[in-house]
Amino acid sequence: MKPMTEAHFAILRRHMVEVIALQADLMSEEIGKASLGERILDAMRRVRRHLFVPPELAAVAYHDTPLPIGFDKTVSQPFICALMTDLLDPQPHEAVLEVGTGLGYQAAILAELARQVWTIEVVEEFASHAEARLSQLGCGNVGVRVGDGTRGWTAHAPFDKILVTAATEVPPTALLDQLAPSGRMVLPLGPEEIQQLTVIDKADDGRIRTRSVIPVRFGTLETVV
């Protein structure tokens, strides 16, 4: 069998977005809307997910499933990636913090939608790979560093939006502090066996409002002592 080309991957990517749209329609009661935003779906059509997974998994990169990327970590299934991004609702003028870079796929999606993306990864090998790949693809509005994501990135705070791609039982205090007034955070909350994808909105006066969306299953957010 001959190797897949970018044209083949583009067809699979379009099909992936169609499946995401179908999933959103089927789960409309749970997520509170019948479809995800077109800006989000356009970004999912543009970003080449097969470049953000191990090369041996490129052929299945557009299946609606999480994929292993090493160190007992995965890249989230496309539907969950799209849903979290839609719930976050990043705008072209906003600065976004991502906690949990992985190999950089979610950061690449966010880079299509926000003015600036700052992303933190605890695994040095992941951060190095993501930074190189994002730079190669011309994502000049993404900054990557290695560190403890629970501490945020003080030098660039406050952030309009914060996306956390690993689960924690309570929202990290530092991230709440670094979230701007009128800002929003999206993250999985709860222990490993009972997690809820959660939206946290911060009012102008600093009050916090929390909304659970759907049950999810993520790895645990790691901290560095």
From TrEMBL:
Q: What class of enzyme is it?
A: transferase
Regions annotated as coiled coil: none
One GO BP annotation of this record: protein repair
Report the locations given in the UniProt record: Cytoplasm
Pfam annotation, one family: PCMT
Q: Does the keyword tRNA-binding apply?
A: no
Specify the protein name.
Answer: Protein-L-isoaspartate O-methyltransferase
Q: Which organism is it from?
A: Microvirga ossetica
